[in-house]
Design brief:
Layout: H1 5-11, H2 21-34, E1 37-40, E2 48-51, H3 54-62, E3 67-68, H4 78-90, H5 104-113, H6 118-141, E4 145-147, H7 148-153, H8 156-165, H9 172-183, H10 196-219, H11 225-230, E5 233-234, E6 237-238, H12 241-272, H13 274-282, H14 287-298, E7 303-308, E8 312-314, E9 317-319, E10 324-328, H15 329-332, H16 367-381, E11 385-390, E12 395-396, E13 405-407, E14 409-414
Parallel strand pairs: 2-10
Antiparallel strand pairs: 1-2, 3-7, 4-14, 5-6, 7-10, 8-9, 11-14, 12-13
Helix pairs in contact: 1-2, 6-8, 6-16, 8-12, 9-10, 9-12, 10-12, 12-14, 12-16, 14-16
Length: 416
């Protein structure tokens, strides 16, 4: 049955649609073609404009002075928006980098910036490669069949980011559960509950954990990112409890779930495009390009929202001050005006101007680390991989924000 433009727009506010790759991209292609700046009205959600073309997403990202992250940085239900507005008024809302605008954003971002610069990444790379080998060895130990998403891909990036923070391995399983509950709030299998209050309990658990961590690192500073955050000062004063906990939350969650989605989705893409798998195995020098193609293909962050501070015309469409805009990164990354044959997975794609890390002042702080992790994993895996094929249907997560495959059953043989 043919989809209407309005039905295509509502797909963006339907969590289950993000787990149906074919339907999802059919909707986005229709919007790009017929209504690239489209008003979406979906039951249970406040209205928003869906921005689906690469050039228009870039335009909004560049005008960060006119289009703000606050007060609606991600798409949520109307109930969630009201609940969050109440918490903002009380000063008890999550306040991560994605919730902030300048000048606060610039100051708070700088606290962790040095930990993600090239020099720091070079120092961290041996640990990343050690962990990549550990998880390729785990694949070998699993005996030729596994759910790659659950048993491998979800763990490797978690170990990397929590090692950077300096958390003990005994706490990693707890962090994994909390992260999955936070980003799986719309997925019946992963969510802790369905109401805004029930979902809030996940954040409260995060905060309780990180308040203990902050106290410990302030009493006994160590050489890790957790100490840098705990002991950071702005205008001579330490961060308040909410901003400190929020910083930990964004590092521990965004630095993990996005990369695990890319690794699982990247392997799935290689399996379903065996010519590209053979091409990459035969020329590992292509790996940097292949990594960016995996990131484009998966686009783990599905959207961010912006709020217009003034009347503005975008692609001829009048946007009013106070209107919300959804920046659809998966759509921008399949834009036919920017990518030659955008639905072809090409490990040698060059140039590759994907927007999976955002653009401008809000460009992903951990982009370099994500690239190192994905590259290290596949550089460890491919020389040992003799064969790999699906062993059942992959299953995507229901979400409107961050995610990818939550199940990827595979059958494989490895050397050594």
């Amino acid at each position: 049955m043919t989809m209407t433009v309005d039905e295509a727009g509502r797909v963006l506010a339907t969590p289950s649609a993000y787990a149906d790759d074919a339907r999802f991209h059919e909707a986005l292609a229709l919007l790009r073609r017929e209504s690239p700046v489209h008003r979406v009205e979906q039951d249970g959600y406040n209205p928003f404009w869906a921005v689906t073309r690469h050039a228009d997403v870039l335009e909004v990202e560049r005008r960060h002075d006119l289009f703000l992250n606050a007060p609606r940085p991600i798409l949520g239900t109307a109930e969630f928006d009201a609940f969050n507005a109440e918490r903002i008024a009380q000063g008890t809302a999550l306040r991560t980098l994605i919730h902030m605008d300048d000048p606060d954003h610039r100051v708070i971002r700088a606290i962790g910036a040095d930990w993600f610069r090239p020099k720091a990444m070079r120092a961290l790379e041996p640990r990343v490669r050690e962990l990549a080998r550990r998880y390729v060895d785990r694949l070998a130990d699993l005996g030729g069949r596994c759910d790659f998403a659950r048993e491998v891909a979800v763990h490797f990036p978690l170990y990397v980011i929590l090692s950077l923070l300096g958390l003990p391995e005994s706490d990693f399983d707890r962090m994994l559960k909390l992260t999955q509950e936070l980003f799986g709030g719309d997925d019946a299998e992963l969510q802790r509950g369905t109401t805004a209050e029930e979902k809030l309990t996940v954040l409260l658990d995060f905060f309780a954990y990180f308040q203990e961590l902050t106290a410990a690192r302030r009493a006994r500073p160590t050489d890790d990112l957790a100490s840098a955050i705990a002991n950071a000062r702005v205008d001579g004063e330490p961060l308040n409890d909410m901003d400190t906990a929020s910083y930990y939350v964004i590092i521990a969650t965004a630095g993990h779930d996005t990369t695990s989605s890319t690794i699982a989705g990247g392997l799935h893409a290689l399996m379903t495009h065996p010519d590209q798998l053979e091409r990459l195995r035969g020329d590992l020098a292509l790996m940097p390009l292949a990594v960016d193609e995996m990131i484009r293909w998966v686009t783990p962050v599905k959207e961010f929202m912006r709020t217009a501070t003034t009347d503005y015309e975008l692609r001829g469409v009048p946007i009013r001050a106070g209107d919300s805009l959804l920046l659809s990164y998966p759509s921008a990354n399949r834009d036919e005006d920017v990518f030659a044959d955008p639905f072809r997975f090409d490990v040698g794609r060059d140039p590759n101007k994907h927007l999976a890390f955002g653009f401008g002042v809000h460009y992903c702080l951990g982009a370099a680390l994500a690239r190192i992790e994905v590259r290290a994993f596949f550089e460890e895996l491919l020389p040992r991989l003799e064969s790999v094929e699906p062993d059942g249907e992959p299953i995507g997560i229901a979400t409107t924000f961050v995610g990818g495959l939550k199940r990827l059953p595979i059958r494989y043989t490895l050397k050594g």
